[in-house]
Amino acid sequence: MGAYTDLMAFQRETEALSQIAGRLGWDQETMMPDGATPQRAEEHAAMANILHARRIDPRIGEWLETAQATDDVAAANLRHIRRDYERTAKVPARLAAELAKTTSLAHRVWARARAEEDVAAFLPMLQKVVDLRREEAAAVAGNTDPYDALLDDYEPGATGARLGAMFAALRPRLVALRAAILDKPVPAPLRTHFDEAAQLALSEKLALSFGYGLANGRIDKAVHPFSSGSGLDVRITTRTNPTDPFNCFYSTIHEVGHAAYEQGIDHAHLLTPLGRGVSMGVHESQSRIYENQLGRSRAYTGWLYGQMRDAFGDFGVADEETFYATVNRVHDGFIRTEADEVQYNLHVLLRFDLERALIAGDLAVTDLEAAWNDRFLADFGYAVDKPSNGVLQDVHWSEGLFGYFPTYTLGNVYAGCLHVALRDAVPDLDADLARGDTSKATGWLRANLQQYGGLRTPVATITHATGTAPSEAPLLDYLEEKFSAIYRL
């Protein structure tokens, strides 16, 4: 056990430094003064250099040669460390530092360009990010598809071809369901002003109702909500809109799903490769099942209706059933994070196809806005009105997160599978949800998936929890059943 013990002690320090690097990113998006951007970019680059050097330390290779796994936990740790070591060794330290610095700068350029509706101001920086990620992908991929090398960062074992086939199977039924719904009368949107402080107070109550532990977390505001950290320090952000409190509430529940996954991992795995979510697809399965199958269910929205009346008084919705339809209102819109369940995945598929083309060199950065607008018009039937509702709406590409977008839809697919298994295991779930009590649902997810962290591969994680291999069919069946009932199709 000597080599394994030494390796894990070294890895623990690397994991701790990685958490510190993540905290720099959290601070940048929530509290950092704008003028600190150049210095923060240097700090990110310095941390990237340190982490890169540790991840390719020659001693890791020596330890891996002699370390023996005596149980499943040790075998999984060695699998993760070996994968990270071999992958990182292919990326020059200079490139890792340049990526960290450039994406830190690009984030602020994107934020300003988005606020000013100025795509041209962002494109030169985006070109730098794309060029660097292409270089990284080429270094890692060898003779395989460069996009797969980037995708593997977020969903180990996945390929663009396999996800493309799954998404192609999703699209026809989603498009048909969308068309059938949009022929029906649509519930009216909320039309009342909702106080920001009251929104934030209720969003905290919702976070607690889903088991978020504030002793090891906090809730802040950000332009683009996110979750950050793992183990004993897991933070989330949300945002508010004075005319749309659902933006705040469901952003909060979504991010709590991410945070609950991290908080739910067995503490025996703290600061080890198993002490964080195994992939972004599995992570998204938690955020989406919390947000949608649980948070937008008829039972839970009945409870939420009462909470909103307590917080805001009469806000123009007559009863619980009308409120349920309003929460699940299928409507035209530009923003992915505000999209209804039926149309959400169409937003993701658009981004997946565009970023694959960017990395392959089939789409020029200068043509990205036009390509986005053309695809959006084709998929949704109306034109993008301004860049912040189009190509500038998401933070991901400014941060170099190519390969991340498809994990959102993969997470929905996984959530559909988990929901079937959850309902089978907890047949009286709706009675609890109607009281705002999610403990049986979140407890089942913690026991069957969350506690294991990175013990298994992503597909094996879902298969272990559900008893079946992942498939898009449960998600499509759930959407058709739910929305057919709401819209009387």
UniProtKB/TrEMBL annotation:
<feature type="binding site">
    <location>
        <position position="284"/>
    </location>
    <ligand>
        <name>Zn(2+)</name>
    </ligand>
</feature>
<keyword id="KW-0482">Metalloprotease</keyword>
<keyword id="KW-0479">Metal-binding</keyword>
<dbReference type="GO" id="GO:0006508">
    <property type="term" value="P:proteolysis"/>
</dbReference>
<dbReference type="GO" id="GO:0004181">
    <property type="term" value="F:metallocarboxypeptidase activity"/>
</dbReference>
<comment type="similarity">
    <text>Belongs to the peptidase M32 family.</text>
</comment>
<dbReference type="InterPro" id="IPR001333">
    <property type="entry name" value="Peptidase_M32_Taq"/>
</dbReference>
<keyword id="KW-0121">Carboxypeptidase</keyword>
<feature type="binding site">
    <location>
        <position position="258"/>
    </location>
    <ligand>
        <name>Zn(2+)</name>
    </ligand>
</feature>
<keyword id="KW-0862">Zinc</keyword>
<feature type="binding site">
    <location>
        <position position="254"/>
    </location>
    <ligand>
        <name>Zn(2+)</name>
    </ligand>
</feature>
<keyword id="KW-0645">Protease</keyword>
<dbReference type="Pfam" id="PF02074">
    <property type="entry name" value="Peptidase_M32"/>
</dbReference>
<feature type="active site" description="Proton donor/acceptor">
    <location>
        <position position="255"/>
    </location>
</feature>
<dbReference type="GO" id="GO:0046872">
    <property type="term" value="F:metal ion binding"/>
</dbReference>
<comment type="function">
    <text>Broad specificity carboxypetidase that releases amino acids sequentially from the C-terminus, including neutral, aromatic, polar and basic residues.</text>
</comment>
<keyword id="KW-0378">Hydrolase</keyword>
<protein>
    <recommendedName>
        <fullName>Metal-dependent carboxypeptidase</fullName>
        <ecNumber>3.4.17.19</ecNumber>
    </recommendedName>
</protein>
